[in-house]
Amino acid sequence: MDHQDAFRALDRQECLRLLAKVPVGRVVYTRQALPAVLPINFSLDADANVLLRTSPDSELVRAVDGFVVAFEADEYDAATRSGWSVIVTGPATVVRDPAELERLSEAAPASWMPLQESVIVRIEAELVTGRELKGTPGNG
């Protein structure tokens, strides 16, 4: 297989279709001027934005509210050396508008952590990129 055939860029619609298949991704943000990555469960809203549910006083909320972040999710098969990766980049905000909260409450994921209170963080899908790696034979 030619190197060019092993790799394929994905369009926005394909990226969103793949994102909807997996329950966990990673938020990439800045913490004390350094890059930080946090695995978290997520969902997509009807506008293709990434939704997270977390504690209102979490470090994540303080670090991302009002800032541009990246969100990455992927799926790989080590045996076939194939898979895909999608990155969503855009501003993250805590949803505070009551009408928006009501609209998004069904679409937002349940937190995997036990929470007394929760907020919904929305990452606007301003830039959505992805790539697929098709299986390549191993070297031994």
Characterization of this structure:
With 140 residues, the chain is α+β, with helices and mostly antiparallel strands. The mean pLDDT is 91. The protein is globular, with a radius of gyration of 17 Å. The protein contains four helices and nine strands, in the order H-E-H-E-E-E-E-H-E-E-H-E-E. Strands 1, 2, 3, 4, 5, 6, 7, 8 and 9 form a nine-stranded antiparallel β-sheet that branches. The longest helix has 8 residues, at 12-19. The two termini are 16 Å apart. Pfam families: Pyridox_ox_2. This is Pyridoxamine 5'-phosphate oxidase family protein.
Write out key terms for the chains shown.
Pyridoxamine 5'-phosphate oxidase family protein, Split_barrel_FMN-bd, 4 helices, Pyridox_Oxase-rel, 140 residues, alpha+beta, 9 strands, nine-stranded antiparallel beta sheet
What does the radius of gyration come to?
Answer: 17 Å
Subunit organisation of the chains:
single chain
Order of helices and strands: HEHEEEEHEEHEE
Derived from helix and strand composition plus strand pairing, the structural class reads: alpha+beta
Report the portion of residues in β strands: over 45%
Q: In whole angstroms, how far apart are the ends?
A: 16 Å
Helix content: 10-25%
Overall body shape: globular
Number of DSSP strand runs: 9
Describe the largest sheet: 9 strands, antiparallel
Mean pLDDT: 91
Low-confidence stretches: none
- Helical stretch tally: 4
Organism: Streptomyces thermocarboxydovorans
InterPro entries: Pyridox_Oxase-rel, Split_barrel_FMN-bd
Protein name: Pyridoxamine 5'-phosphate oxidase family protein
